[in-house]
Amino acid sequence: MLAQQIIAGDRRALAKAITLVESTRADHAEQAVKLLEQLMPETGKSIRLGVSGAPGVGKSTFIESLGNYLTEQGHKVAVLAVDPTSALSGGSILGDKTRMETLSVNPKAFVRPSPAGKTLGGVTRRTRESLLLCEAAGYDVIIVETVGVGQSETAVSDMTDMFLLLLSPGGGDDLQGIKRGIMELADLVLVNKADGDQASLADQTVSDYRAALYFMQARTPSWTARVNACSALNNEGVDQAWIVIKEFQAALTESGELGSLRAQQARAWMWAETAEELLAGLKGHPEVKSLVPALEKAVLAGDMPAIVAAQRLIAHYKGNQ
Ligand SMILES: Nc1nc2c(ncn2[C@@H]2O[C@H](COP(=O)(O)OP(=O)(O)OP(=O)(O)O)[C@@H](O)[C@H]2O)c(=O)[nH]1
Ligand SMILES: [Mg+2]
To answer: Among the CATH numbers 1.10.10.10, 2.70.98.10, 3.90.1640.10, 3.40.50.300, which is that of 42-255?
Structure first.
């Protein structure tokens, strides 16, 4: 029932399904798994984009501009958030929906704020499943936004086809708090805020990053990272970014890399899910739980090697399942 409604593009049904996926209740988890199984044949038909960058660089403004541009062209756009700060502080990148004012009321767009999760792993796990639900609902461009503070970028690049990194004009990697490892993830670097008196500085920054990327290892044989300028605020360069995204999609489709990338992502996901479930089962086990304080105390005090404590926990779990 819910599955059919989602396939028919019912937004309320989609929102309900995502809530189900995000729920920590066991019965909800069971329903969510069944739903995902039913919807599996309807997934995989979107381009999955990750968008990252330092706080305030203009991610939300860019996504809003790109999203509205794409819906005008007949696309259906879904925006999801992975928010490492919500795992730590309970905050949310998109918690304040007014920050994508026009896109969140656009009937051809679906904007979903970040789920409140305890761990970053938990948050991203839900986001990946939500992404599949959005595909089943017919969204053909899915954008996953994450704030670039160095924790969530890898997770987002592991669930998307293409990774976009936004930078501000001027400054080097370190000045912008962008680590080299994150630069290396980028398939498209956009120097945003290329407007007003920052326009020429933005052009210089584009040249600097083109030079820097020239010496970096390409992520895939069929694509070399690009660097462009844009002004999300003035809707400039956003259409050009879409052209590059389409070129990326065509190049990786033609080489077969898009298919193998997604297959590998799914396999990695299977193991991540297995590990997380097993650990949750172990940690939730009453017998194991009662052992934890003494073992942690002994490990903290340096009285017991960590591996001994770990093996004792596992032995107890296995023996009492
Ligand atoms: N001049 C100029 N300002 C911009 C541009 N894009 C965004 N801004 C401004 O930069 C500020 C931050 O923009 P957001 O889109 O909220 O940035 P964000 O990266 O989503 O920020 P967080 O979600 O807090 O990490 C806002 O005041 C925007 O109006 C741009 O292209 N040019
Ligand atoms: Mg934002």
So the answer is: 3.40.50.300
